[in-house]
Amino acid sequence: MGKQTTWVATFDGGExxxxxxxxxxxxxxxxxxxxxxxxxAGDAPGEVRADGxxxxxxxxxxxxxxxxxxxxxxxGRARSGAFDRLIVAAGPKxxxxxxxxxxxxxxxxxxxxxxxxxxHTPVKQLEQALSDHL
Length: 134
Known about the structure:
alpha/beta
């Protein structure tokens, strides 16, 4: 089996950060998003829901909606082959919501769930906290 690409997603109900494990073993931040960012119809061209339908945001997003958006975005990246393994680190409420909305193909990529909110954890500390899973 060839080299596998590992991503880490850490989020709560209002912020998310996604990292990739680089060849040197360090995490590199790929993207971040916040619930406070404006969400209006058409602000995410090409973004689709897990069922393949176009996704638009027509009103302020709830925390549950934000976690669904994170899951949808990760599911799209999983379908495109961007990563082979996913580590999810989120607080209990966000992790519970994520489990409800994550489609099966995304769940199949998850190798670890860490029931702790690490969205504000500095990268080096995050690497240490997740070292058993990386």
